[in-house]
Specification:
This protein has nine helices and twelve strands. It is an alpha/beta fold and 296 residues long. It folds into two domains: 226 residues, Spore Coat Polysaccharide Biosynthesis Protein SpsA, Chain A (Alpha-Beta Complex); 59 residues. Helix 1 links the parallel strand 1 and strand 2. The chain starts with a strand and ends with a helix. The mean pLDDT is 89.
Amino acid sequence: MTTDSTLGLVVVGYESGEEWEPFFRSLHNSLQVPGHIVIVDNSPQTTEKFGPPLWDQVQVLRLPDNPGYGSAVNAGVSVLPAEVTHVVISNPDIRFTPHTIGNLRDGLTTFPDTAITGPALENPDGSIYPSARAIPGLRIGIGHALWGNVWPSNPWTRRYLGDYRQTNRRPVGWVSGAIFMTNRRHFGKVGGFDERFFMFFEDVDLCYRLKKAGYRTVYIPDARALHEGGHSTRGRMAEMVRAHHSSAAIFLTSLYPHRYQAGLRIVLRAGLAIRSALQQAKYRRSENKFKTGLSS
């Protein structure tokens, strides 16, 4: 195990108590580990236990008002020492392999002007999660939203989600914010995450703004990580749907900022509001049926 003082790690948790021990255990088995680690705890209660620290340099930053994922990451990056030039951003439900971090770091030099690298994310069942996607512009976004659930193989969804049969490192539109590595200077040059996004789409927006600034986001399939997934959203699906569509509205309307595109922005917001309401109602019906079954 090699400790790199120029490498930092910012991990954001929310009521993540059961995740910390396996997270740090997998990190301890990494062949390359960050020299500086910041845990940003967004939990409303300040009694979160992180277990015995594996490194003396672990710093805990508590934000009980829960400003959101992107805001928490920005706060964590801001307290890293100046010697840190590259940062791993992660959720606590990520499990590292010995080569995850080293291959992400190496991947930053695969293509010029790379700002972000993201690994292949394994689901608990061993399948690959589609974590390296296209920027969801108007055609792709609408096509995927309309047909993704009823016709999963439609061309818009396939283009948006990407092809995971390929094993080559390659530039992509964006990678999942569940775990990625970033060049700190490039991350700072675009202002980090946009803090208007409470959760969802902050990763899409970051990679899009980096692309506009001339930087690449690169998918590194030989840097694999397991994503346990969903620990902070279980039991809150209707709430998550509302947050997802709210963030989608912020991002998609920001793609079309001109005055002559005002009508398009109105249509996008209206369509997302209707879709959000329908999906929230579906989840609430399911939750009510579950509660009724428990009480009968």
